[in-house]
Amino acid sequence: MKTAVTKIVGEESVSDDEEILTQYSGDFTPSLVVWPMSTEDVVQIVAWANENSVALVPVSSGGPRRRGSSLPKVDNAVIIDLSRMNRILRVDTKNKMAMVEPGVTYGQLIPELERNGLRPLMPLLPKASKSVLASCLDREATTIPRFHWDLSDPLLCTETVFGSGELLRTGSAAGPGTLEEQWASGQAAKNPQGPSQFDPFRIIQGSQGSIGITTWISMKCELLPEYHQIYLAGAESLDELEEFNYKLLRRRLVDEHFIINSTALCAALGTDYNLPHWILVLGITGHGLLAMDELDYRSKDTLDIATDTNVVLTGALNELKHDDVKSLLNRASADPYWKHKLRGICREVIFASTLDRASHLYSVFTEVAEKVGFPLGQIGAYIQPVVQGISAECVLDLYADPGDATEANALNTLLRDGRERLLDEGAFFSRPFGSITDVIFEKTSPEMVKAIQDVKAIFDPNHVLNPGTLCFKEVPR
Question: Residue 464 phi/psi, 5° resolution?
Fold first, then answer.
């Protein structure tokens, strides 16, 4: 196996060293790790895997691997680690877009965009080794719902090698011509729809590497503001902020807009503050020649809505200042990852809901936590409105000490029972990870599951890509 793959990528790009393999291991240990350097390498590796019925597990982010989607689910899998494909292929300020390979991290992309007067639409404080491409494919919610027009945003066009071995560029990047020829003619790979009336990027997104291996994406960016003002509001209950949030989101006045509980915010800042249970964070910006005027009218209108809905917006909550929160935006986390600092490890529960039901679902989950004996003070919560407030992504962070057996047992029980209770109460797990995945597909209509499996059979007929993921339990033949 190693000899065959070495012929494709070279000796320095293949390893079967046990210490290296351990970095990619979960319940199963892979047999090989390969680092392709180009799209052509990926095409040849996928063709080889099909010919030899070898499972491939695509990886692009560095560790720690917290969610398990990039860990092998079968024996003798080959890890195809795309992290060395790390070129920023294009930054286009005029069209507010960037094109990146899978190994590009936020720490690499942010300064390059800043040099071009742009900033990425990105999640809150991702880990330093997080692949920008993986984040977009995984539909991680960004902090700026104002520019969120579709659940797929900020993803635009892609280049993907399907499990069948076929290569396809999606959206306006599909052609005609090479990328360089398209750029020369003024095209910007900005339209994700196509080719023709087919939108294959929607099949790839959220599939956790089980349909295709994406070798580059184009993504939306936004202009860097000249002025950036942060406002904060505190509340003991999410219900206190509900009317204000909805009215504000409809007006599209603010850029950053999210709610975070004091446990998660203190963990992110690395400092204990005396804070209300919930903190609403708003960012208002001004751009261009009339930057101050823009900042002024947007701030005044936001403050008027706050007054009308009995919400107090301020630049400080006790000792917490607006600049403290601003320091968390538009950057990646320092190492070690902030979610691991509090207790050593963090497990996430991620689901979608509407803002008006977030309070109920949070209460449901904390009830289960109390029942199983998991400390409420070790549950971080982050609620991110998406698509201009149509819905919200809710992330519950469970901080635990892996050396404490009692705490670890309570954590595992809460992950199982809490997620199942959320599912029963109407939480939507659009990005399923871990044990809840099987439960979700058991409760999904058989017709829907079969349709998903039929799509898999079309694009990955031999089931070589990440078998065992989602509802794809088949092992390569």
Answer: -90, -20
How confident is residue 347, by pLDDT bands cut at 50, 70 and 90?
Answer: very high
**Structure-block tokens of residue 247:** 């009215």
Domains of the chain: residue spans and CATH: 2-81 (3.30.43.10), 88-223 (3.30.465.10), 227-326 (3.30.70.3450), 338-437 (3.30.70)
Q: Which residue has the tokens 């210490």?
A: 19
303 is written with which tokens? 């403050």
Half-sphere exposure in the Cβ direction for 211 (13 Å, CA): 23
What SS3 class is residue 323? Answer: helix
Q: Which residue has the tokens 């880990």?
A: 127
Report the pLDDT value the prediction gives residue 454, as an integer from 0 to 100: 95
**The residue type at 293:** D
How far out from the chain centre does Cα 152 lie?
Answer: 11
38 in Cβ contact with 51 (< 8 Å): no
What does DSSP assign to residue 222?
A: E
- Residue among 473, 462, 468 nearest 54 (CA): 462
What is the torsional sign of CA 270, 271, 272, 275?
negative
Long-range pairs, 108-113, Cβ under 8 A, ≥24:
110/330, 110/331, 110/332, 112/88, 113/221, 113/224
In 3-state terms the chain splits into helix, strand, coil percentages (rounded to 5) of: 40, 20, 40
What confidence tens digit (pLDDT) does each residue in 31-73 have?
Answer: 999 999 999 999 999 999 999 999 999 999 987 766 777 889 9
Q: At which residue do the structure tokens 């950053």 appear?
A: 256
Task: Examine residue 385 and say whether the peptide bond preceding it is cis (omega within 30 degrees of 0).
Answer: no
In sequence order, the β-bridge partners of residue 346 are: 399
Q: Using CA atoms, how far apart are residues 335 and 347, in angstroms rounded to an integer?
A: 17
